[in-house]
UniProtKB/TrEMBL annotation:
FAD-binding domain segment(s): 15-383
Family listed: Belongs to the paxM FAD-dependent monooxygenase family.
UniProt keyword terms in alphabetical order: FAD, Flavoprotein, Monooxygenase, Oxidoreductase
Alphabetized InterPro entries for the sequence: FAD-bd, FAD-dep_Monooxygenase_BioMet, FAD/NAD-bd_sf
Organism annotation: Exophiala sideris
Protein name according to UniProt: FAD-binding domain-containing protein
Amino acid sequence: MGSTTKMHSDVDSLKICILGAGMGGLACALGLARAGFKDITVYELASNLGFVGAGIQMAPNMARILDRFGVWDAIFQEAVVLNETEVRQGATDEQMAHIDLKYIKETYGYPHTVGHRATLAGELYEGCKRESKNVKFTFATTCEDVKFGSKPSFTAVPRNGEPYEVQCDILLGADGVKSNTRVAMLRELNVEAEVKDTAQAAYRIMLTREQLSNDPELLALLDADKVIRWIGERRHIIAYPVSRKQIYNISTTQPDVNFAAAPSATYTTKGSKKAMLEVYGDYCPMIHRMLDLVPEGEVCEWKLRVHAPLPTWVHGSVGLVGDACHPTLPHMAQGAAQAIEDAGVLSVVLAHLPSGATPQDINKALKIYEEVRKERAEALVELAAQSGRNMHLGEGEAKKERDRQFAALKAGGGKGPVPDKWADADVQKMVYGVDCMKIAEELATKELNGH
């Protein structure tokens, strides 16, 4: 699907700059190039596309867009299809809920898969390289001093070189949770949006088949087609196989105690293995054996950060994308998917610009992007926070009620409301069953006349 009508010949030459080559920036570049835009430049602070080794869940709402962007087949080859999910008690390993995920492919056209972040980013980048006459990359460059005139501009500061001014027709800030573009936009609008400390941190761990080879119980986890969450008070672990089941990906969430002294500019730090084992000290022996396999010195801990919902994502011809406008806790596994939905919608609405598009037309198109995406993305951010709260309950009435819900779910064969929102069928329908690009196509056709 993409736009049903051909783009106007003077629209495809609009100069588009994208700040940031994360999932959102790469997907925007690829989607816009495939929509027919010919002058796209991506600016990235890092000197290359070094993506952190970690697993990523790839839900149908994301796969659908990646398929339209021509990169899903290559990503899917490396992926692991998840057929089931379980919630277990961290302390006892007792199963609290089991949900069959096989229905997802029948219902939404794509299975629920998991993969490696580096594969996803790498294939998006390869897709951009296939569009290399339309997409250019400028690495090792910081972008500062964003200005919002009739044509947006910013100062590009190369790591080894003189700063220079860049002016463009459309500027997309895909520059992450610490976005300079967002800061500049809010300053221009005289609005505050605090980065909120969630007081949560995450360990991200990848164990190879070789590391697990002497432990039959752990090997069985790697060989299963399932994602498991082990939950406990104020913390949980989620794990699943990736990279054709050669790697077991483990991600945790726990109270952020080690960052208290760290400057807020960093959001990752080398963690202590001893501290990690203590945090999950009351979990079952199998989890201890699993965490104990992490080599000393390879424990990475991340600070989980979000910010209050923004009053707007758009100002003039500038739009925010992904974590720059809707960073989320990982408990719905929708962070990258929501950035990719942003890219899908932008590729549709901007392709509908009328001939001789003015800054007003561009702003109108960006406002349609915001209309299609903002409420949905913010609802998912809130759901992720709620799901995290549900999983981290300590002793008390709320935990009893949650565990009753899990028990009812188990008795009902996996049907009914799920306290872990990610696995709830009604929530899945809202997340996976919505085709943002299709909605954008209808709105843009109606509101951006000229077609």
